[in-house]
Amino acid sequence: MIDRKVSIRYARALLGVCADKGLDEDEILKMLKELDAFFGENPQVLEYLSTYVVSTDNKKKVIEQLVNNEMLADFLNYVIRKGRFALFSQIVEIFEELVDEKKGRVKAIVKSAVELDSEEKNKLKEQLSKKLNKDVEFEFFVDGDLIAGIIVQVKDVVYDGSVKTYLSNLEQRLLRLSV
């Protein structure tokens, strides 16, 4: 919980620096996500940058090799000096949420029984964008456990239009009636 609060502070600070310097948040986010992916493939580098045993100067040299944006390098070196680099992935995640919120975007995960065609995807995007009054970015998945219908998750809200859930709810109502 404390780590998340700290990560939020760093992500907000980075967003503020981007605004102050007139930088494109999406471009910074892209660089951060590439770096996060690199750390995912090379966890020893993240561990090296997160440990207290390695000098700040040595860590700074690594950052210089990994990042070609001066502002971002300065930010990452600041995080290192404060001993918070282990929170890097969480900072990136929260920064992405803040950028999406600022730009009026939201991510939606769609599970369907069968692959949706492009017309169905466009109609869903149009309806959900209108309902949420935001630009919606979708991730589509086919879920073999669904009988028919779709389930859409936006942040913590789930819109369940699956036949499986409908039948389950119907069963519960029938059981209550028979008692």
UniProtKB/TrEMBL annotation:
GO molecular function terms noted in the UniProt entry: proton-transporting ATP synthase activity, rotational mechanism
Subcellular location as annotated: Cell inner membrane; Membrane
Family listed: Belongs to the ATPase delta chain family.
Subunit composition and interactions: F-type ATPases have 2 components, F(1) - the catalytic core - and F(0) - the membrane proton channel. F(1) has five subunits: alpha(3), beta(3), gamma(1), delta(1), epsilon(1). F(0) has three main subunits: a(1), b(2) and c(10-14). The alpha and beta chains form an alternating ring which encloses part of the gamma chain. F(1) is attached to F(0) by a central stalk formed by the gamma and epsilon chains, while a peripheral stalk is formed by the delta and b chains.
Function text: This protein is part of the stalk that links CF(0) to CF(1). It either transmits conformational changes from CF(0) to CF(1) or is implicated in proton conduction. F(1)F(0) ATP synthase produces ATP from ADP in the presence of a proton or sodium gradient. F-type ATPases consist of two structural domains, F(1) containing the extramembraneous catalytic core and F(0) containing the membrane proton channel, linked together by a central stalk and a peripheral stalk. During catalysis, ATP synthesis in the catalytic domain of F(1) is coupled via a rotary mechanism of the central stalk subunits to proton translocation.
NCBIfam families: ATP_synt_delta
Record protein name field: ATP synthase subunit delta
Lineage start: Bacteria, Pseudomonadati, Campylobacterota, Desulfurellia, Desulfurellales
Gene: atpH
